[in-house]
Amino acid sequence: MVEKLNLADKRLRAVGLLGGGVIGGGWAARFMLNGIDVRLYDPAPNAVEHVQKVLASARRAFQQLTPIWLPPEGSLSVVDSVAAAVRGVDLVQESAPERLELKQQLLAEAARAAPHGTLICSSTSGFRPSLLQAEMDHPEFFLVAHPFQPVYLLPLVELCAGERTVPKAVERAAAIYRDIGMHPLVVRKEIDGFIANRLQDAISREALWMVHDDVATLQEIDDAVRYSWALRRAVMGSYRMANGGPGMRQSIAQWAFKWPWSRLTEKPDINSEFLDKVAEQADAQVKADPLPLPTEQMRDDLLVALLQALSSQGYGPGETLANWEQQLRKLAPEPINESGPLQLPILEVSPRWLDYNGHVTEKSYLQLSGFALGKLFRHIGHDADYRAKSGSYYTVETHMCHLGELRAGDRAEVLTQVLGVDDKRLHLFYVIRREGDEKPAATVEQMLIHVDAVTKRGGPVKGHVRERLLDLARRHAQLPRPARAGSSIRMP
């Protein structure tokens, strides 16, 4: 009898990693920075050092990618056997080298040692899951979860079930990967190479033909890609611009499989002479256009910038980032509420927040006050249900003062004080400062108006939100009034 998976309990606590190379290290970073403990099995002598290096790169990238609080970082435990890696974990992720016998052996051993019902996933980039699960005692909880490098930044993970995989296993895996900021794509049928790699291989083959025939160099091919359809496809994909059925029919009739557009059914002779030519062009590329940062850092910075640009539009991979950030907001600690102002969890100042003078920008200070407002709303129960049924607060006035400096790497805290509440108005004051400092780096004062959900006009705050706000305002009335509250800009 197949054990029923608990789909309600989606949050991972621990993962067993089989392999800590390029892909395994990326998985370790993504899991750990999402607060998930990792148990690593990899007999290679430098596996731990490699994972730590990837983790450092991921920390740097995540600091730029999102200003939302990450959960406390998961731990990394190195173990000396497959059994120790899979014992007591919620998910096993195999990322061993692409050798079928090795993968089959590891997966079979993991299935024997893991508790029945544990999800076991392979990062293979090409082997069909039915082939990989052939030696497993309990193959029903096995599937392929194929990511892309760098795993901690690129959101796609292709999920492919084998002949004996139960559907609930795929559902459970999709929920898990979605929660750590990824976009799970379920492959409908088993196929070698899955979807993205087959597309990538087709483009690579055509590129190598053009190099082989001296039509173009590697540099020219890269320029043709990155200055044209690579940008468009990063945003829209391949076929959305066809604008539906009529456009798709016309596109196929005009362009598909038309000679001499493609030679994808053939491949050039990969001999030593051709390999020398390609290698020489690759060296010339690097010398002609050296990257100002180490290659991995430059790659990460460009990916972060593109993902953030897409996130601002809430579209495609940017929507995946926005959804992950929303999940992080839910998991972030509640503001401290003892006898003083509400205090946000500490945030480290990112280099992305700085202006040309190396100081935090006005936009970033306002963003920090926005985070504090969101935490205040969560504290008083001003949630989606309340907004839909009763109403919402809207900002009508904001004043900001620069009083000090914050720099990259500083640990910043935000204190929120309720200065006043009545039926419609909410008056707030934020102090933004370096952790441990008394002097603020900046202050933000804000007035909000409550708008009724039905009339769309100013209306009284209601129910539990009103009660909690009034209670908070009474307690904050006992605090000293901030010196700059009510100040405005004046000429001397």
Largest pleated sheet:
8 strands, mixed
- In which range does the helix fraction lie? 40-55%
Residue-averaged pLDDT: 88
**Percent of residues in beta strands:** 15-25%
Structural class designation: alpha/beta
Number of helices: 16
Q: Kindly, what is the distance between the CA atoms of the first and last residues, rounded to a whole number of angstroms?
A: 82 Å
Order of H and E elements = EHEHEHEHEHEEHEHHHHHHHEEHHEEEEH
What does the overall shape look like? globular
The rounded Rg comes to: 27 Å
> Which segments are poorly predicted (pLDDT under 50) over 5 or more consecutive residues?
1-9
Q: How is the largest sheet built, in terms of strand order?
A: 3-2-1-4-5-6-7-8
DSSP strand tally: 14
Structure description:
With 492 residues, the protein is of the alpha/beta class. It is globular, with a radius of gyration of 27 Å. Helix 1 packs across helix 2. An 8-stranded mixed β-sheet has the order 3-2-1-4-5-6-7-8, sandwiched between helices. Strands 9, 10, 11, 12, 13 and 14 form a 6-stranded antiparallel β-sheet that branches. Residues 1-9 have low confidence and may be disordered. The chain has helices spanning 22-33, 47-65, 82-86, 100-113, 129-132, 167-179, 196-212, 218-226, 229-236, 245-255, 272-288, 295-313, 317-331, 362-380, 384-389, 463-476, and strands spanning 14-18, 37-41, 76-78, 91-94, 119-122, 142-146, 156-161, 183-186, 342-343, 347-348, 391-402, 411-421, 425-434, 442-452. The chain is built from 16 helices and 14 strands.
